[in-house]
Amino acid sequence: MTRFLKSEANPGGRKLEDILMELRSDVLLRCTKIADDHRPEALKVLANNMKVLEHLTAALELAQDSTNVLDRAFGPSEAGDGGQPRIGVA
């Protein structure tokens, strides 16, 4: 059973894309809060956060691409409403 993602066993879960977008937004907000702090530690954390944002964006694009592939091939997911998974085993 997934803990965060929407599935047959977890209909109240969320889409991976939604979680990644919210996480990216949180990291971006943190970046804005330290953007004017020029201490070496803050600059390093900001640089690290910028790299994290790049990786989150790449992960988001991959998740969206997977959803698009599944939507084109099998139509919208019905797993969250008790339907079968579009791929894999239940």
Kindly describe this structure.
The protein is mainly alpha-helical and 90 residues long. 60% of the residues lie in helices and 0% in strands. The protein has 2 helices and no strands. The mean pLDDT is 91.
Give the overall form: elongated
Kindly, what is the distance between the CA atoms of the first and last residues, rounded to a whole number of angstroms? 10 Å
Number of helices: 2
Order of helical and strand elements: HH
Helix content: 55-70%
Portion of residues in beta strands equals under 5%
Unreliable sequence segments: none
How are the SSEs ordered, and which strands pair?
Layout: H1 16-34, H2 40-74
Could you list some keywords that capture this structure?
90 residues, 60% helix, mainly alpha
Summarize this entry quickly.
This protein has helices at residues 16-34, 40-74.
